[in-house]
Amino acid sequence: MNIRQLISRAAWGLLFMLATACQTAPVDLVTPGPVPLAAASPAATPTPVLPPGGALVIAPVPATATATTSPAPTATPTPTEPADRQPRRLARETTTATRLPPVPTATRPANVRELHTPILMYHYLSTPPSNADAIRLDLSVTPERFEQQVAYFAAQGFQTVKLQTLYDAVSKGAPLPPKTVVFTFDDGYEDAYLNAVPILQKYHFIGTFYVVTNFVGRPGYLTWGQIVEMAQAGMDIQSHSVSHIPLKGKTVEVLQKEMAQSKRLLEQMIGQPVNFFCYPSGQYDTLAMTVLQDTGYLSAVTTRGGVWENEALPFEWPRIRIHGHDQLSDLLKRLRYPELAP
Fold first, then answer.
1. Contact 153/181 with Cβ under 8 angstroms?
2. What three-state secondary structure class fits 79?
3. Rounded mean pLDDT of 87-116?
């Protein structure tokens, strides 16, 4: 037998032995056991990113392996606030103070107080001129329509308060009439003295008038004499800045001038504290709120719509804008008093 024949026979013998081994191999080599499960564990690692329940298809995995899927439920946290309220912009400042929904106090966090107190926002209280543009028409409420609104609130048992009274109620829990409404008038137009004040006094109401100090004495605006007279008559005089520039994106120096100078001048002229502010054109940012607080203001109103005043958001109180075309029924819908009807 030559070498070629020997190699051929050896190869055939090796193939025969391999075939025999495959037929007689123990079955426990393919039986599932700890080794295959351990090898599969890397595949189970990404299961937390699957939709809820998606990781369950890998069962039966021992209890120690399923522990890797436990974070999956945290991907869908349960909301802690009802959905009927939109988040507030200070959510970035404090999570517990994020625009809480209009629900009874008992269901809100104990350290946050919020009152359903509409603050109404007016501008002109006069008949607009014949050549008035769309903006002037929107900002102008006629004396007749204003009196209709005031008379309705009086008939429904509402009372008016100054902002200090509302602030004490919101921030300290001080007493507040069960039906309270606040009338505010922006910019310091002369028709506030000529038309708004007499109507308010007729129904034993008061109003808050936000004055732009650089505008005082200009044609169509209040004079210092009128402002002092209004304050002495019990009206609430507060600040609307020095020059009515938007306060968003301004430097600290500009903000201090607009806020501090107007506060100081008004207090000097009327002899009363001026602790409340109205953002010109509704424009402000976090720095503006910080400077307001540092300047000594207690609260500020915005042009954002809403009727809930929150103690955690004293520098972002919402108001209800009154448009020139608003009927009484339009106003009542925005007040969110279900029992009210025109």
1. yes
2. coil
3. 48
